Amino acid sequence: MEKIYNRVLAGGAVGIACGIVSIVTGLTVGVLLIVTGARLLSARKYMEE
User: Fold this and answer.
1) What is the rounded distance in angstroms from the CA atom of residue 34 to the CA atom of residue 42?
2) Phi then psi for 23, rounded to 5 degrees?
3) Is 45 helix (H, G, I), strand (E, B) or coil?
């Protein structure tokens, strides 16, 4: 019974770790996209119409 408990515990820990990595990756990509979009918008005034 203890083997099953340890495996379930390890599986839960892996799931939580994957979730945290996914959240951090999503936030990082989101911030990069916002910064890139802001830079593109600020460079728009230098383009010819």
Assistant:
1) 12
2) -65, -45
3) helix
How far apart CA 30 and CA 33 sit, in angstroms, is: 5
Sorted by where each begins, the domain ranges of the chain are 2-44
Q: Where is 17: in which H helix or E strand?
A: helix 2-43
Task: Pull the structure tokens for residue 24.
Answer: 């951090």
Alpha carbons 19 and 13: distance in angstroms, whole number = 10
Q: Which residue has the higher pLDDT, 31 or 4?
A: 31
pTM, full prediction: 0.72
